[in-house]
Amino acid sequence: MAAELLSVNELKVHFHTRDGVVKAVDGVTYSLASGETLGVVGESGSGKSVHALAMMGLVPMPPGKIEGGDVSLSGRSLIRMSENERRGVCGNEIAMVFQDPMTSLNPVHRIGHQLAEPLRIHKGMGRRDAWARAGELLQMVGIPNPESRLNGYPHQFSGGMRQRVMIAMAIACDPGIVIADEPTTALDATIQAQVLELMRGIQKRSGLAIIMITHDLGVIADMADRVLVMYAGRAVELGSADQLFRDARHPYTWGLIDSLPRYDTTEQGGLRPIGGQPPSLINLPEGCSFGPRCRYTQDICRTSAPALMEVEDGHRAACHFACDAGLRDLSPRKHA
Amino acid sequence: MIKYIMRRVLQFIPVFFGVTLALFLIANYMPGADPVRMRFGERTPSPEVKEQLVKQYGLDRPWYEQYGRYIAGLSPVKVTDGSLGIASPDLGTSIYTGRRVSAILGEAYPYTIRLALLAIVIEAVFGIGAGIISAVKQYSFWDVIVTLSTSVLVSLPVFWVGMMLQWFFGIWMKEATGGVLYLPISGTSGIFPSVAYMILPAITLASVSTAYAARITRSQLLEVMGQDYIRTARAKGVSERGVLWGHALKNALIPVVTFIGLDLGAMLAGAVLTEAVFNWPGIGFTIARAIAQRDFPIVFGGVTVMLFAVMIINLLVDVSYALLDPRIRYGVGADE
Ligand SMILES: Nc1ncnc2c1ncn2[C@@H]1O[C@H](COP(=O)(O)OP(=O)(O)OP(=O)(O)O)[C@@H](O)[C@H]1O
Ligand SMILES: [Mg+2]
Questions:
Q1: Residue A310 pairs with which residues in a beta bridge?
Q2: What dotted CATH number matches A1-93+176-336?
Q3: Which of A253, B72, B140, B308 has the CB geometry, 3.0–4.6 Å to A248, for a possible disulfide?
């Protein structure tokens, strides 16, 4: 495995709201090597976006607060560094692509200006050089006539094109890591595939590490080397894509895999969502937070929260029975 | 753009005829003394003089004929002795003083323009400035001050504001400083430098609008600061200052510029109350006096000039709106 680039250690991000403390991210630990793609999956509200925003210093504070833990990028803490220092890092060494390309670009600035901005801030480029480089970036993400497109405004671009612009902007300063928060959710299927293909191509050429946040396990299967499964603000399973698809140990992960459309059966209604609702992040249930929805709940699940335990090399799961061969045989995908 | 301007100019035509026609009807059916009687006050004119005046001003003609004469007078294309010619528009003569209306308005208008320009500068600087401070330091001491004072200000009657200013700066301060430091409260000339006479009326005229401008700026800026593209800018490593000045302000000020521009139009149409309180001989004051004296040529002429002024300002506002917002400049609609 290549050198460790990013390490997230027991990161906790809480929101202090009128209704109580929302534990959006409550102890997440993982690491990322350069050139690697980590998929982050989980249901809506599981804290995927918030954990990424925390690294970028984009959590609104208040109500948000980093309650504990750390994120270090090449040995420097992204959490404890000064605002100034962070500004030098964000967009330069670590960049982010957001979910909604329609609203993520500034409507009153030319595309070229927005693309050139990180180059001018971080690379000290002059107006002309940055503009020229912006043209190359547009070319790189597959936008035809880049010179004239630089003069265009966001509303003159379609959703797919805007997401390409966002990607161009993220890779402008040649960062080591790009966090992509559901970069294709807002796009239709063919455009989705193109955008993912584009990201893969860029990664191959530049050795970029990608954190790919999604609730689409199909995207994970396509892109990810390793997968982090989040549930209610915690990591419930972490392993290589192969380990997870072949031998998931957490019932929640089974549920996710099970809810994938299956092409190998003629079963009606392909998608089978996991029953029940995610818990309130303000009043997490005692014991395992997935307990109330788990089909295999035992007494211990109701009283003690399971820690992440190593089940095989590089594969960890937070279930009391992760190493219990008897329970594992119940995995619905065991045959797949 | 040219097409757009043409369309706006064409739209002005029905507005112009609508307003002037309504005025003629009101003037014709307005109760009270007739214009000729007003001119002579207590004295009774001889029947011959009276008849001559009535004839001269066409007051014995039905209103639609008077209206026709007025429109014909305005028209720059005239038929003289069976041949077409160009002549400058003619607004007629005052019944009360016998002077040309254009001369009377020409004297009054510079006063109104000067007052309006100073008021707009006050409104733009203090309104936008207070709005920005208030939004950037939301819920701070200054925000509370701005929010409270603007909500009080918008509910105060203009003439009351004017009279309070007169009392404080003109009377109380004069007494408190033994006649050393105070501001003139009426008229346009005297022992003070001429700008001094504008200060209180301009503040009065600007007061309510400044409060509105501050509130619009504040709410727009707060809304814009929550937009996705602001998050994108931060993710690029743009400083907070850069976010405010480079990304947020231009978006937030679009509606503010519209408001201030339209307000300038309204001010150029004459500030009747302010001009009355401060005896400021501008267009509003002149028209108000003319209405009291039933001096209809001045009223018609004044309203005509006002209409054109408002139309031109509105056009300029539209053009500047398009300059600020590329979505309007180029028409919305994505292409790929
Ligand atoms: N500004 C905020 N104030 C209060 N709560 C917040 C705020 N932002 C996020 N949260 C809460 O944090 C939790 C995690 O949200 P997050 O956006 O990380 O979920 P997600 O996993 O990205 O979901 P999705 O798949 O829908 O994007 C949610 O319960 C959300 O309500
Ligand atoms: Mg999200």
A1: A316
A2: 3.40.50.300
A3: A253
